[in-house]
Amino acid sequence: MHAVIMAGGEGSRLRPLTCDRPKPMVRLCGRPIMHYILDLLDQHGFDTATVTLGYLADVIQNAFPTGQYKNVKLRFVKENMPLGTAGGVRNAAIDCTEDFLVISGDALCDFDLQSIMKRHKESGAAVTIVCVHVDDPREYGLVNTDAAGHVTGFTEKPPWSGVTTDLANTGIYVIRPDVMRLIPPDKPFDFAKDLFPLLLKNRMPMLALPAEGYWCDIGDLTMYRTCQHDMLEGRVSVQLPRTETAGVFGRQASPGGKIFPPVYIGERVQLSREAVIGPHAVLDDGVRVDPHARVRGSVILPNTVIGPGVRLTGVIVGENAMLERDSAMYEDAVLGTGATLGEGADVQPGVGVWPNKTVMAGTTVRQNMKSGSVRPQLFSETGIEGPVGMLISPAFCARVGSAVGSLKSMQRVGVGYGAGNAVRAMAMALMAGLASTGVQVLDFGCVMACQLRFAASFAELSCSLYVGGHDNISLLMLGADGLPVENAVERALTAAVQKDEAIRCAAEEYKEIADMNSLRMIYQQELYRCAPDGLQGEQAAVSCEDPEGELLLRDTLLRLNVTLRDKPHFYLNAAGDLTRAVDETGRQAGAEELLAACCAVAFWQGEDVAVPYDAPAVLDKIAEAYGKACLRYDQLDGEDNQSIRRLARRQLWLRDGMMMTVRLLAHMKRRQCSLAQLLAELPHFAVRQRSVNLTASPSVAMQSLSSLGAPQRQGIAQNGDHTTIRIWPLKRGDRLRVLVEADEPETADELMADVSRKIADLLDS
Q1: Where in the sequence of the chain do the CATH 3.30.310.50 domains occur?
Q2: What is the Cα–Cα distance from 46 to 40, expressed in whole angstroms?
Q3: Given its phi and psi angles, is residue 409 left (phi above 0), alpha (psi -120 to 50 degrees) or beta?
Q4: pLDDT of residue 194 exceeding 80
Q5: Topology of domain 241-365, per CATH?
Q6: Residue 723 predicted with pLDDT over 60
Q7: In whole angstroms, what is the distance from residue 438 CA to residue 504 CA?
Q8: Is-above-0.90 flag for pTM?
Q9: 732 phi and psi, to 5 degrees?
Q10: Can you give the pLDDT at residue 81?
Q11: What's the CATH code, domain 2-217?
């Protein structure tokens, strides 16, 4: 049997460990990762393997000078240019005449490969994708299947709101030789992005095969440490040399020191009798640990010296490093190859020190350098938010600003903020961080969020940031379309903030922060355009939680010749959203009904509309009656979604309460009707929503709730003739959002109660 081992990646999230070696050659309990993969191939009868090489190719090839590992004959293929995962495999397997295995050289597993090959051949599939169930699917490519296990689609690293399955692609495939002909030569081509969608399009069968056993994608430094923890605990079937002492692995029977198993002790390790090691410590070959040093839950790579009194808890130390007396490192900190930690110095949790750096004695290292780790979920549905002085501080905002300015394609970035000294201070810090990267910063001052959304399009901004709140402050990031940025941008920004990786421009590259306080006048002109024929003869009252916003809207209506009286009365919140209205009869209409009315106006004028994915389902029914389309956008990736967001950019009035108010009044004048009459033309509907706290993983929860609806781009949905149910996890993964819709309020209340009971029962079972 033949295998292709993909070993060409840079392993950037494992830096600084991968600065001088490719990821497959990084060591796990004394041996390179790739050795464990080759052991598995040998164990299951593979006699040949082709290794695709890219980054530091010679390091891998030189590690196998005979071209042989045990019973596996090795062939090496270098890529002259990056060809993607599928392109690299094509180069390695174009001459294969039998089905072959593709496996990563930088992940650890103990799957039964013989059984996998057998299942693949029995299925007749063009490709078998080996999968595993995972607790947190946000870091993986997910595989959607039908009941028989046939692949129906893919979801790439979704937020919790987009999770409908916990079946993750391991990057291990069995491939029929004829599939290779679909991969173009000398052109970047990936399995997940290019080949697999092409197979689906051509109706070539793909099987998703959940594998039993252990699998760890060593994607970052935390997983690198966790994987070795699992090896010591016996959770993965690998051969670790054992000593006479239970729970102590390695080739050194009595290294000395006080040891708390499980630990791994390599060759030539020197332990002082007063040193304390373990549990879950890995000391690779040639490590020296001096008196009273303590190493716990940490990975220490070869030839490192740990001085007297050093304290290491949950850290990684690279090869040939030096830790001097009484220095310390804490959880998830990393010291790179050849680095020195001076006497009494300490590295704070999550901080990385790059190779060959020297930390001076007595120094506390608090700033992240170039290190990889598991990304916290920075964004919620309302942006980045938290209490003043805790998560949200001027220092943090400056860091966010510099991270935003360092993202690709950032040239002009706008900043606006609400009322309050704390909010203004955060905005100033945000702009300082942005300016430090050399981007052009536009200061729109104290404005409403709806005005900044308008500015995003008007000023042709790369993105814009709005700071709002009081004791709890939120940072909302909007894209060039004035909508919340897509998931890929949120991920990139989160990674940049955590790593503290930012461009730092020279003094002469700083640009003057542009004063954009004229926005109010320009925005008011846009409000006038929502009623080009004026509003002579109309009457209305308006209230807004933002006093300046209320003055602006009242002034606009007066200039459009509206008589300000008590009804209809439109109510807006501080962000400028239209939250409710009271019509001429005294009946109250909520935000969903007013949105439906505004959409009906657009349909009546011959327009399609673009609305958020959670907008009421009744909009589809209204659109159908007019022969138009109601399109829904979200924050996930995809060209279809991009085109819908482009339409939404031109329909700001669907997200701006002031524009919506003026537009509704203009339509009432055009039709010579009242707001009550306009609302009466809408189908009856009622929307109810609630959130449910989660104690388990959202992916597990969504699997448990799969009987309540069909998978969607975000969550699950059940659409009936007169009812709709939608359920999806919120971004931080701690709650579910439940939305139901029915023809009548009583029916919606009953439906919500019934769905809530079912959710509670399914989550408890």
Answers
A1: 686-764
A2: 9
A3: left
A4: yes
A5: UDP N-Acetylglucosamine Acyltransferase; domain 1 (2.160.10)
A6: yes
A7: 8
A8: no
A9: -80, 0
A10: 79
A11: 3.90.550.10
